[in-house]
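Subject: Predicted fold for Glycosyltransferase family 2 protein, 359 residues

User T.R. writes:
Posting the sequence so we have a shared reference for the thread.
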Amino acid sequence: MPITISLCMIVKNEQETIARCLNSIRDIVDEIIVVDTGSTDDTVEILKRYTDKIYHFEWIHDFAAARNFAFDRATMDYILWLDADDVIYEKDRKKLAELKQSLNFSVDSVSMEYHLSFDQDGNVTSKSRRNRLVKRANKFRWHGAVHEYLLVGGNILNSDIAVTHVSVEHESDRNIRIYEARLARGETFEPRDLYYYANELLDHRRFEDAAAVYDQFLNTHQGWIEDVIAACGKLADCYHNLNQPDKEQEYTLRSFLYDTPRADFCCRMGYYFLQKSEWKKAAFWYELATNLPKPDANWGFVNNAYWTWLPHLQLCVCYDRMGDYRKAFEHNEIARRYRPTQEFVLLNKAYLESRLSED
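User M.O. replies:
I've generated the structure tokens; pasting them so everyone works from the same file.
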């Protein structure tokens, strides 16, 4: 017997995206519950075309509270959550419809990929994984006023279904204002709050402030491992923008203390030596990046470029500078498998073919 699904959403001023989102899921879910936190545009009128379960929630600067309010109104076996600027494309709609028919009720949560950005050929360049479909009877709750997360446990199925984020403009200062209001009230931030507050500071190019908060986060020794590793990369970004290359390298290397090397940090090391024209050292780090296994069902953010074409493209540069045109050509060809129409890859191909023909 198929499961039943409640779709739960929170929205505010989403008239540009809400219909696109709901059109992609309306025929799969059994009820649509939308909590509006104060729309002043046509969002609510659009919602009425899809559901009569529209609730109004007074905004208290707490995203988790709004999401829990929505979850509390669900009545079906499982709850699916989406944001208004998310969409489920046809191949994933089919997978979700099939999952609905076959899902064993022993499953407490189904995680799905979250596709965040794409290259010019439509390949996913950045993604993460999130618990998307959860058993209502378990009463899983959202936590965190900003950058909220759903705390789940039990039997988790990691599916290959993807939700795609189709970006739209949002109020850029909203989140940082919430954090700074909480600080003004004297609140003590948990490690996760420190990490996301630092992200907001980085996004606002307040590099020194961001670096201080990232350090504070790392010094708690309590952060989620993926956030800890990501914080090292973001600290490297801060010091790159502050023109402090030694500090940039310090935090790149610090990432290796927390886990086996990741391809993105190896590429950072490679780029450091590439800028100094130390081609052999740069090639070492880029070669290492190409030999690392790509994370499987990784819950942190993954930039596919570092695990696919980018280190090979940089190796093409390194070997060209070292005069090894055959190796340079081989690595450019690997990059071309991933980026077959990229202009600079095609230019490299023509240049290296002419070099090899001279030998």
